[in-house]
């Protein structure tokens, strides 16, 4: 290992980083990103990278957007902070809530603002509990999410998340959080099972789970339209239609976690529109402000609002809220982001670019290292396997996904590797057709180099 640079040494001695093997990281140090423009970011040596992950699935309008910068500066000069506690309010929060109601795919009565996707999903669960107390159903409190679903890392959100690393030795999940099966046809369908048959089986399994637990104890089901951090898993055809029917039958509140899929990622404003289901409530974050500032929201129906009214009247106060929830500068930036999405027809452009993105993506399926190349809209996952025919995965300790990420970085492309050596792609939605070609050319070269290494090390 070459010695770490001064900046890298300072990093290793001062920061705890999320989602890394902290022991190995002491040897490798960080990739320090210094600036960004358009779909590119530049490291501290000035090297350019295509940001193939839009940061963390969030910078949809890319970097250096002066309109967003200006919106923040103007609002900061006018009113740098205001809150929504104890009856106070401010223009940006009111306007943003109005805008979200206007573009919502289902009837939304009110918006509650938070700062992150985790806070939004924590809030969803608290609101569902509060709702069921208001409705005199104190035992209807269990929440069902899915294996490989990702909903964040605060204690409740991490309980919803269905990934082992988010639970192990954090003493999670909390009791009352259940995980239904993962809707990944490639990995979990039985031999010869069609997508529709697989979807039927998953819905039947969900029904069985709810019946076993007792429908009067199950409050809500939460799902991402397309799973992101679990490995970009597109549900099988008819999945949500069948799942929604089960939820409705057992009076289970359905929450769409649109933290990644919201704001055009699948070529529609919200992911549930693309996948054709109608949730009761929605979580948004990330691209809401194109990640120029942190902001998230919980969008709830009138029936839930009525319950909050009744319960807070009884108790005397609605005892929930974050200091920075609906921060005026973040809200002003989010408003501007949505204005740009609408004015520049970003969602329609994402839909128009998707066939190109998806055809370059699925062509990677022919690569000897790739078991499945999958995606929808402008999101993709490339699952690396040791044996294509048997779908045998690499042993995790070989770090094949991490190696591919390094090879991509050497090619000037940032991608991410998640559990099971799945490389994830989620470029800014402002990417052009020729930049999509460039992205996939770089990724193909990176896969070739990863394959050379796999052969040299005899890992397959
Ligand atoms: C679908 C989904 N929900 C929730 C979260 C959590 O968001 P945050 O990291 O802002 O807490 C994420 C983060 O990646 C996500 O992808």
List keywords for this structure.
4-stranded mixed β-sheet, 7-stranded mixed β-sheet, 15% strand, binds pyridoxal-5'-phosphate, 460 residues, alpha/beta, single chain
Concise synopsis of the structure shown:
This protein is α/β, with parallel strands linked by helices and 460 residues long.
Structural overview:
By secondary structure, this protein is of the alpha/beta class. Helices cover 42% and strands 15% of the residues. The chain has 16 helices and 15 strands. The protein has helices at 6-14, 22-28, 54-57, 66-78, 91-103, 117-134, 155-160, 185-188, 195-213, 239-249, 271-274, 302-315, 328-343, 346-363, 400-410, 433-456, and strands spanning 33-37, 40-43, 48-51, 110-114, 142-146, 177-180, 218-223, 253-257, 281-284, 296-300, 370-376, 379-384, 413-414, 416-418, 422-425. It has a 7-stranded mixed β-sheet, sandwiched between helices. A 4-stranded mixed β-sheet has the order 1-2-3-13. β8, α11 and β9 (281-284) form a beta-alpha-beta unit. α4 (66-78) packs antiparallel against α13 (328-343), α5 packs parallel to α13 and α14 (346-363) packs parallel to α16 (433-456). The mean pLDDT is 97. The site of pyridoxal-5'-phosphate has 16 residues, from α3 and α6.
Radius of gyration, in Å, reads 22 Å
Chemical compounds bound to the protein: pyridoxal-5'-phosphate
Total of DSSP H or I helical runs spanning 4+ residues: 16
| Secondary structure: helix percent | 40-55%
Strand residue content: 15-25%
The low-confidence runs, each spanning 5 or more residues with pLDDT under 50, are none
Structural class: alpha/beta
Side by side, the strands of the main sheet go 4-10-9-8-7-5-6
> What spatial form do the alpha-carbon principal axes imply?
globular
Span from first to last CA?
Answer: 25 Å
Structure summary, number of beta strands: 15
Main sheet: strands, sense, barrel: 7 strands, mixed
Calculate the mean pLDDT score and round it: 97
């Amino acid at each position: 290992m070459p010695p770490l640079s001064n900046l890298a040494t300072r990093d290793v001695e001062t920061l705890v980083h999320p989602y890394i093997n902290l022991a190995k990281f002491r040897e490798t140090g960080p990739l320090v990103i210094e600036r960004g423009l358009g779909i590119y970011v530049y490291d501290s040596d000035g090297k350019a990278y295509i940001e193939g992950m839009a940061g963390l699935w969030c910078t949809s309008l890319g970097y250096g957007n002066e309109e967003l910068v200006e919106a923040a500066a103007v609002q900061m000069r006018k009113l740098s902070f205001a809150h929504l506690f104890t009856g106070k309010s401010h223009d940006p929060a009111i306007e943003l809530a109005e805008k979200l109601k206007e573009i919502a795919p289902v009837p939304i009565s009110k918006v509650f603002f938070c700062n992150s996707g985790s806070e939004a999903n924590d809030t969803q669960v608290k609101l569902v509990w509060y709702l069921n107390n208001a409705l005199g159903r104190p035992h209807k409190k269990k929440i069902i999410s899915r294996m490989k679903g990702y909903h964040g890392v605060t204690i409740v959100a991490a309980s919803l998340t269905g990934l082992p690393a988010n639970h192990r030795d954090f003493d999670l999940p909390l009791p009352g959080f259940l995980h239904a099966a993962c809707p990944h046809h490639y990995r979990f369908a039985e031999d010869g099972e069609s997508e529709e048959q697989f979807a039927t089986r998953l819905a039947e399994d969900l029904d069985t789970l709810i019946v076993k637990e007792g429908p009067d104890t199950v409050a809500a089901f939460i799902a991402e339209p397309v799973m992101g951090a679990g490995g970009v898993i597109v549900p099988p055809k008819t999945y949500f239609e069948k799942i929604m029917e089960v939820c409705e039958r057992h009076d289970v509140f359905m929450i769409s976690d649109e933290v990644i899929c919201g704001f055009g990622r699948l070529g529609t404003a919200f992911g549930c529109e693309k996948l054709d289901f109608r949730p009761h409530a929605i979580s948004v974050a990330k691209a809401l402000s194109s990640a120029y500032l942190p902001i998230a929201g919980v969008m709830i129906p009138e029936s839930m609002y009525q319950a909050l009214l009744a319960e807070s009247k009884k108790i005397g106060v609605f005892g929930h809220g974050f200091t920075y929830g609906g921060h005026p500068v973040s809200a002003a930036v989010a408003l501007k982001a949505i204005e740009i999405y609408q004015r520049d027809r970003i969602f329609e452009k994402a839909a128009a670019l998707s066939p190109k993105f998806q055809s370059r993506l699925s062509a990677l399926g022919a690569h000897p290292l790739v078991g499945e190349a999958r995606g929808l809209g402008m999101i993709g996952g490339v699952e690396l396997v040791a044996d294509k025919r048997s779908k045998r995965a690499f042993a995790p300790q070989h770090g094949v996904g991490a190696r591919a990420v390094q090879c991509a970085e050497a090619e000037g492309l940032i991608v991410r590797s998640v559990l099971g050596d799945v490389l994830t792609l989620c470029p800014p939605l402002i990417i052009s057709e020729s930049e999509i070609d460039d992205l996939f050319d770089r990724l193909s070269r990176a896969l070739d180099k990863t394959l050379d290494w796999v052969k040299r090390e005899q890992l397959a």
